Amino acid sequence: MYKKVALFHFLLFFYSCFAQTNIDKQKSILIYSDDSGYMQPFVEKTIKNLQNIDTDSSFFTSVHSFNRFISDNKYQAELNNLILTQKPNNIKINPYYSESEKQIRNRIFEILNKYDYFLTVKTNTLGELIEFQFQLYETVSSENTVYNISDRVLSVENFFINPKEKDYKVEITNALQRLFKKSNRIPEAELKIFDQFFNADSGNNKIVLPIDISIMIDGSNSGDNDTEIITYHWRNIIEKNEKYQTTKKLIFQDNSPIQNVKIKESGEYKIGFKVFDGIDYSKEVVINIIVREKPYFINVVDTTVYSKKLRTIIPLKSNRKFFGKIYVSNFTSDTITDKLILSKNPVSQKNVIDIKRDLLIEPLKIKKDNFYSYPYIEFDPGDSGDAISERRTYYLYNVDDDGNLHNQKVINHLYLVRGFVSFRFNFVNAAMNFNREDESGTSYQYCSLAVGFHITNNLELELALPFGDRKEENYKNHNFQYPHSFEVSANYLFFDPKKRIFGQIIPYLGFNLKSFYYKFLEDEIYSQTYSVGPKAGCEYSLTSWRMFDLDLRLNVNYDIFTEKTFNGINSGGLGVSAVIKL
User: Fold this and answer.
1) Are residue 127 and residue 177 in the same domain, yes or no?
2) Rounded CA separation 579/491 (Å)
3) Domain enclosing residue 528, as ranges
4) Which of 19, 98, 272, 388 could bridge 383 with an S-S bond, Cβ 3.0-4.6 Å?
5) Cβ of 356: how many Cβ atoms within 10 Å?
């Protein structure tokens, strides 16, 4: 007998536990509306359609309306009284109630006990607007006695709608979802500044900027999985020890996904950004903006730089480098190349650590020419041999102590390719001394056209042809004509073609061979005699255009004749030449 009783109690206990577990899993809700108008069915349907995002199932398995259960005004009035009671007797029903009133309240408790939640919908018409108030309660019982429901308020939503607007039902749906937090997927906020993305989980969001800079803070990548309509919320975050009225703030446009701001004061700014989908706010993205004075900027003398390739009859080696030079006017002795970068492409990132290293031209070397007073930045574009292009564009930036980039300079790099032939126009003031006792010598001027052939970078061969009238002189029973009929020169230029710059003076030494006409006084046929001698001069690089270079040469020469007949004649001259290299 006792075993049967014990088994009965065990089965009863097991059933009660199993039934309670199912109640916890299957939530139910009862809805009461003080106005059972056309919105009541919409509210019920919306709640039935709510989905729990954690379980991917319906939020409620049972949704019913108190208005349908009992339409008696007495019950509804008592329910209103129950809700409005502020400090009721939560343990026992008021003993002063009549039997009829006790029955009504017991009936209400009996209905409420069947549901986990109770929702009241109150409305108030104000002209064209309708004020809604949702009150959500939890119906918890203890010792078989229902707590007064006003002690179990979980959430309240107040809002206005205009039934003439198309989206008024969306406002009601959003308000219902705000009551049940797991019924909506939270939107995501994301900010973009200078191609760098920030979100609430990205840790220490910090950027350093120069003063008086305009930046675009872009929140348009934020979004929601459930709706297209979101609002954007920006704020200045004030620390505990700061005053809102005196702290530095940025000015934001309300509900704008993109903010264009110009920061004119140095200091630290802290901003917050989040989005709202009508139900939930996203996590807030917090960014610390540190604004500092602008760093030391270099001053580029000329944003067009050149590398020159000179073709020669004997080709250059294929691995020869062609360096570019960027002249600057305000370098100091402590300037280092770590504070500069040269990029192949414009840099949208504003910090050097975000740049791909293969975009940079490295290394940069700071040097100073002997011919210019300006120092220069030498860089290797990486081309060698014939693997060159006509024009390239690079981008020079200053780097501050925090690695931020400033002061973009667009550098146009031109490769100037010149052939192995150059053309020259020579003007010479020459002297011819025939070593006579009655004269000191004869001075004359002549012009010539010359063609130069570049054998190597340093060695050239020149052929010159004078033009104009010749002079005659009787010398030792010979008729001697001058200037010469043609000239051949071999010159060696003392310079490194990799380091040649405009404005540079290049010295050279050469050897002349000239041909002169002569004849015996009685003959009609002219013969040729030759003079040889050294030549020394210098070349000055005037300028360069896209199609040619223009150089200026100055030289002196001295000649002696190879035949004994004329070895008493001395010749020399001072020449000026314009050299065109194509």
Assistant:
1) yes
2) 14
3) 421-581
4) 388
5) 11
Integer Cα distance of 216 and 208 in angstroms: 14
Q: Which residue has the tokens 């230029």?
A: 493
Judge whether 541 lies within some domain.
yes
What pTM value is reported for the model?
Answer: 0.50
Q: Do 176 and 206 lie in a common domain? A: no
> What's the token pair of residue 2?
């006792």
**Per the domain annotation, does 12 fall within a domain?**
no
- What is the C-alpha separation between 73 and 83, in angstroms, rounded? 15
Same-domain pairing of 194 and 179: no
Side by side, the strands of the sheet bearing 324-327 are 324-327, 375-379, 364-368
Same domain, 170 and 86: yes
Note the maximum CA span of the chain. 170
Residue 31: strand pairing partners: 65, 119
Residue that the structure tokens 């991917």 belong to: 56
Strands (E), 400-526: 405-418, 421-433, 442-454, 459-467, 471-475, 478-482, 486-493, 505-520
Residues 379 and 430 in one domain: no
CA 105 from centre of chain:
70
Q: Where are the alpha helices (DSSP H) in 389-531?
A: none
Here the CATH number for the domain that contains residue 236 is: 2.60.40.10
Pairwise CA distance, residues 111 & 88, whole Å: 19
The CATH number that applies at residue 462 is 2.40.160.20
Burial of 303 (0-12, 13-18, 19+ CB in 10 A): middle
Answer yes or no: do 26 and 175 share one domain: yes
* CA pair distance 78, 200, nearest whole angstrom: 49
Please check whether residue 162 lies inside any domain of the structure: yes
Three-state DSSP state, 110: helix
Tokens 């119906």 correspond to 139
Tally of domains within the chain: 4
The verdict on whether omega for the bond into residue 483 sits within 30 degrees of 0, i.e. cis, is yes
Q: Over its length of 582 residues, how does the chain's per-residue pLDDT go in tens digits?
A: 444 434 434 333 333 333 332 333 558 899 888 876 678 888 999 999 998 888 888 888 889 888 777 666 666 666 666 665 444 444 445 555 567 777 777 777 778 878 888 898 988 888 889 999 998 988 765 444 444 565 678 889 999 999 888 888 999 999 999 888 888 889 999 999 988 889 888 877 888 888 888 889 999 999 988 888 899 999 998 887 877 766 778 889 999 999 999 888 888 899 999 999 999 999 999 999 988 876 667 778 777 776 777 788 887 654 455 677 787 877 654 455 667 888 888 877 666 767 777 777 777 777 765 445 677 777 777 655 454 556 788 888 888 777 777 788 888 887 777 888 999 999 999 988 877 655 667 888 999 999 999 898 889 999 999 988 888 888 888 888 888 889 999 999 987 655 555 567 889 999 999 999 888 888 888 888 999 999 999 998 887 776 788 889 999 999 988 888 888 888 889 999 999 988
Is 125 a domain residue? yes
- Strands 28-33 and 117-126, by their bridges, are parallel
62-to-31, 38, 145 alpha-carbon distances in Å: 11, 21, 23
**Is residue 555 within 8 Å of 566, Cβ to Cβ?**
no
Distance between CA atoms of 518 and 528, rounded to whole angstroms?
Answer: 6
Q: Are residues 406 and 425 in the same domain?
A: no
